[in-house]
Design brief:
The protein has two helices and twelve strands, in the order ααββββββββββββ. It is α+β, with helices and mostly antiparallel strands and 266 residues long. The protein folds into two domains: 100 residues, no CATH class; 143 residues, Jelly Rolls (Sandwich), CATH 2.60.120.
Length: 266
């Protein structure tokens, strides 16, 4: 008789345990769905300034079965973090016997766009150039994969054994539009004419990039582009070691913020 009396509560207890485990598993699935919606909404907000709830809803529905009919709500914290909240109804198996037809499960996700300061323009002032070899100097930008996106000739230096010429003239300022980029720097093409006649054809060409792994061997710098006086840079072309073969000052004239990543906060 005792077994019969205890059987019902034992079965109900076991059923409730199964329901709780099921609710927990379902909640994890819905959490991932809301996370994906929050990331999509934060990225859209960062690029356009508005939250696209329709787009977010599609992401949520695609990442959890049963999520398509559940509305997702958005708010923005004081620090700009986007908060996504959705309440799902989970149907229990055994708990329905004791009156629980639906169990509400509320899921919240916070996401924010990460921005970095990037250059719109740089102002370049070439303060000196010399050396026994003629050379061309370029300002370049790269993509995140390292591919060259743009190259701009900023100095053509020529030496014919007795006279030197500079295009443009030393001392002037040039403002360059940087455009979209992952990194930027300078490239030096050195025409190694050991007759010292300034030949630029049929002679070896040595190329150095300011972002090469061993760039410290031929470049020196002080200051920062963001400083009021800019960054002062000196290059060596390999003829000697005085680091006076290309000298310039660079200032950042404008900055812009570009979203590079969207991350979950909690």
């Amino acid at each position: 008789m005792m077994s019969a009396i205890l059987a019902a509560p034992i079965l109900i207890s076991a059923g409730v345990s199964v329901d709780v485990a099921r609710i927990f598993t379902t909640r994890l699935a819905f959490q991932q769905a809301v996370d994906s919606a929050a990331l999509a909404a934060a990225a859209k907000q960062a690029s356009s300034g508005t939250v696209d709830s329709t787009l977010a809803q599609k992401f949520m529905s695609a990442n959890a079965a049963g999520a398509s009919a559940t509305p997702i709500n958005f708010s923005v914290d004081t620090d700009g973090t986007l908060v996504a909240t959705a309440t799902f109804q989970v149907k229990p198996l055994m708990m329905g016997i004791v009156g629980y037809k639906n169990i509400p499960v509320t899921v919240t996700s916070r996401a924010t766009a990460v921005a970095v300061t990037k250059l719109d323009q740089v102002t370049l002032q070439i303060t000196g150039a010399q050396g026994a070899y003629s050379k061309d100097i370029y300002f370049f930008t790269r993509s995140s994969s390292g591919a060259i996106l743009s190259q701009t000739l900023v100095l053509k230096y020529r030496y014919n054994g007795s006279t030197k010429s500079y295009t443009p003239a030393i001392g002037g300022s040039t403002t360059l539009n940087v455009g979209d980029y992952a990194s930027y720097g300078y490239r030096m093409d050195i025409y190694v004419d050991n007759t010292y006649k300034g030949k630029t054809t049929n002679v070896p060409i040595v190329t150095h990039y300011s972002d090469d792994a061993d760039a410290a061997k031929w470049t020196r710098s002080s200051g920062s582009c963001a400083d009021a006086s800019g960054i002062q840079v000196q290059w060596e072309d390999g003829g000697d070691s005085n680091y006076m073969d290309f000298q310039y000052t660079q200032k950042c004239t404008q900055t812009s913020k570009k979203v590079t990543d969207v991350r979950l906060i909690r």
